[in-house]
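Known limitations

Files may contain more than one protein. Parsers should not assume a single record per file. Below, a two-record file is shown to illustrate correct handling: read the sequence, read the C-alpha cell line, then continue until end of file.
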Amino acid sequence: MTPARFRWGILFIAIGVMLLLNNAGEISWDYWWELFCWWPILLIAIGVEKIFLRSRVHYLSYLSAVILVGTMTLVAVDTGAGTDDGDFFSTYRWSEDADPEVKLITASIDHGHNDLFVRQNSSDLIYGRFDRFSRKPRIEYSKADDVAELEINHRSGGMRSVVIINDRRHSRDWSLSFAENVPLELKCYGDDADVSLHIDNLPLRKLLVYNDDGDIYIKCGTLAPEVNMKVTGDDAKLRLKIPEQCGLRVAGEEYGDYLETLGLVAEGRYYHTGGFDTASVKLTVELDPDLRHLSVDYY
C-alpha cells in the first residue's frame, strides 16, 4: 500500500468520524470552518510524505496521515460542542441565569490579548461568548449572600488558527453582557487589545481597566449616582463618552491643558466640571499619566 493511498483512506475515515460526532452533538458544526483555516497542514503532510517516500526511511512517509488526523483531533477537542453546560467541551459560550436574589455583580476579567466587548443583557444575569479562534478561558462563578462573583482568566498558548485573516476582525473575541438591572463592579485586565465597554445601560459603580498598548472605548450612562473609574495602560488610547448631565472629575495633571479646553476647572490634582458636587450623577476618573491619546466626548 502506498503512503498516498493510506493517507487518503485514513483521512476519509477521520472525516466520517467527525461527521458522526457532529450529528451526535459532541462537536459543533463550526468545527469545519476552523479546520479549513488549518489547511496549510495538508501541504506540510504531503511535503513530509514526498521527502521520505523514496528514502531509506520510507516508512516515515506514513507520518502524513498521522499529522492530518492528529490536527483534526486537536481542532475538534479545542472547538468543542458549543454548549452552555460548563463541561470540558463547552468551549465558546457560557451563561448564568437571572437571579432575583443577586443585588451586586463583581466581575474580574483577564482577557489577555483577546479583544473585549461588554454591554447590557436583558435576560441572563451574565452571558459570555468567546470566539473560537481564541483560547477558551477559565471561568469561576460563585454567589455569597446577594453578591455574585465572576472571574474569567485567559489561557496562555492553546490552539490558534494557522491562517489569521484579520487580527482585528470585529473587536469581539470575547463578548460579555451583564444584567441591566443589577449594579456592577468591573475589572478588565489585558494587553494590546481592543476594549469596547458599552456600559451606558448598566448601573456601573466601579471600573478598572488595565490595557497596555491597547485601544479603550468607554461609554458611560446615568444609572448609578456615583461611578469611580481608573484607566491604566502605557501607550494606550482612551476614548471616553459621557452624558451631558453627568458631573465629571478627572485625576490626571498630565492632561490638564486638554481638560481645560473641555471647560473643566483645576482644583488640586483634579479637574472637574462646574457644579460637580451637586450633579445627580458623578463620574470620577483616574488616568494613567502614560496614555498615548485621550479624548472625552459628551452625548
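...continuing to the second record:
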Amino acid sequence: MTNEAEWLAERFEASRTHLRGVAYRMLGSLSEADDAVQEAWLRLSRADAGDIENLRGWLTTVVARVCLDMLRSRNSRREDPMDPHAPEPMMSREAAIDPEQEVLLAESVGLALLVVLEALAPAERVAFVLHDMFELPFEEIAAIVGRSPTAARQLASRARRRVHGTTTVLDADLVRQREVVEAFLAASRGGDLDALLAVLDPEVVLRADRPAAPAGASRDVRGAPAVAKQALAFSKRARFAQPALVNGTVGIVGAPRGRLFVVLGFTITRGRIVQIDVVADPERLRQLELAVLTE
C-alpha cells in the first residue's frame, strides 16, 4: 500500500506544474491555483486510482471543475463588501509586496490577457482556457461546464472574441491616444512629475468612484498639479498596469496578480489629458468592454 501511495504521489507531482498552469489561467491568483491543485490531490487520494486510465487528464478535469466552482463562488460574493477579492482602492496605501514568483507568472501569461479573462463569465473562461490554451476537446469541456459540446464551443467562441477583440492596426486617433496614455503610464512608473504635467491639461479633472478613493478623500480632483500628485501615488502599483482598450478607447487597466481591480478611462484633447475616470466598483468593472491592445 505504501508503494502504491508513493507511486501515486510521484505521478501527481509530475503533473503539478501543468495543473498549476491550468488553475492560474482560470483564477488569476497563484494562491487560489495552489488551493485548487491541493483539492485535486485530496480527491485523488480518496478515489480508486486503479480505475483512472489517464491520470493527467483526470486531474485536469478535476482542477477545472474546482476552478469553475471557485469562479462562481467569487462572482456570488462580489456584492459582499467584505469579499477578499473585491478590488483594492487605487489610491490607498501600498499593499503587501506580491510574491516574486506570482509576478513572474503573471508576466509570462500576459497581464492584458489575464485582465480580459477576468471579465469573462466563469463558464466562458473555463471553456476558453481549456480549449484554446490546453487543447482539450469540447466533448470533455462540455462535461466540466455542464453544457452540450455545441454550447461549450459557443462559450469558447464568445470568449475568443473578447480576448482577440482588437484589430491588428489601430486607427490614427487610437494611435495618438495610446501615445498619450503610455506617456502618462511611463511618467507614473518613473515618478516623473514634469513628464506627467506635460501630458495633463492644466484644468484636468480626475473623478474616482467610491471604491477607488480612500475613506475621507475627495473623489473629484482638479488641476494638473493635484492630479499629477495622485498619479505619483499610483507609481508603486503601475508595474501591474498597462494600456488596453476600454469601451473602444485607450485606457489603463490595473491588475495585481492578474486580478482586475481598477480601470482608468481618459478623455484626450489636442494631445493632453483633460479628464481621467477611475473605476474600481466591481459591478461597473464587469460592465466595461475590455480588449487586449496588440503591438
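Parsers that stop after the first record will miss the second one. For reference, the second record is described as follows. Residues 78-99 have pLDDT under 50 and may be disordered.
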